[in-house]
Amino acid sequence: MNTMKTFLLMAAMTALFMVAGQAMGGQQGMTMALLLAVGLNFFAYWNSDKLALRMNGAREVSENEARDLHAMVAMLAMRAGIPKPRVYVVDNPTPNAFATGRNPDHAAVAVTTGLMHALDRSELEGVIAHELGHIKNRDILIGSIAAVMAGAISYLANFALFFGGSRDEEGGGNMITTILMMILAPMAAMLIQMAISRGREYLADATGAEICGRPKALASALDKLANQNARQPMDVNPASAQMYIVNPLKGGSISGLFSTHPPMEERIRRLLAM
User: Fold this and answer.
1) Three-state secondary structure call for residue 88
2) Distance of CA 200 to the CA centre of its chain
3) Are 49 and 102 in contact (CB under 8 A)?
4) What's the total number of domains in the chain?
5) pLDDT in tens, 97-153
6) For residues 212 and 182, what is the distance between their CA atoms, to the nearest angstrom?
7) 20 to 30 A Cα–Cα from 4, which one of 152, 170, 205, 234?
8) Which residues are catalytic?
């Protein structure tokens, strides 16, 4: 279900790009915007692990430093059928975690110091299994493709702002259409991108529950993490907030169309129903 929803949302994003591209930039502007977006996002995708880990102050830990954590990651990765990712720790008292890497062979899992103190073993396994679910489902790649399309639409809006949009017959579209597209298309692209992100979180929850075999433990962990992050938000770059298992920022309770994370109550309800 989540896979089909992601496919439909990506198709909607592509259709939006084609329509907005013709209205705002014509064939030439649409091509330039797509090439620019592909170039920038390919760099970000290829270096996603390095960028994300550095941005969040994550430090790689050896097996000697965190023997139990390494053993847990190795065991769950074997269950998931993926290579064991590198293991990182973020020195932060707020419990949270994220995964990054362009594919399962170049992946990393990072947990905060607070996470290892806040959860019991089964809950910690659930959180790590969720992150391994992101890696197994190649969510970094899917997110990068969505970012390419959303970025291209934003570049088209800027192109239309500075160069007046499409004026030739092939590009079509009058000034009113161009102005409306400049305002509405980037917003629509962002809404689709956020919907894709929420769908992938649901899928990672389901995959994580299958990997650890304890959906109720993951549900319990999510409840604890949501409460503690609301009380003690993390000081992280907003650009990396969507990577975490729960929104680490103050105001993370914002729900609806503009949220990168699904409502916590619904995530917990789905896990308890498994």
Assistant:
1) strand
2) 8
3) yes
4) 1
5) 999 988 899 999 999 999 999 999 999 999 999 999 999 998 877 776 666 666 666
6) 46
7) 152
8) 131
Strand partners, 59: 89
Output the average pLDDT for the chain: 81
Residue of 173 and 73 predicted with greater confidence: 73
Whole-angstrom distance, CA of residue 194 vs CA of residue 166: 28
- Count of Cβ atoms closer than 10 Å to residue 257 Cβ: 11
162-204 per-position pLDDT tens digit: 655 544 444 444 667 667 766 776 777 777 777 788 888 999 9
Alpha helices in 95-164 (DSSP H): 113-118, 121-136, 139-163
Range of the domain at 11: 2-272
The residue type found at 83 is P
Residue 194 and residue 259 in contact, taking contact as beta carbons nearer than 8 Å: yes
Paired residues of 244 in beta bridges = 98
d(CA 191, CA 195): 6
Place of tokens 């910690």: 124
- In the block, tokens 């800027």 appear at 158
Q: List the structure tokens of 125.
A: 């396994």
- Name the token pair of 103: 């594919």
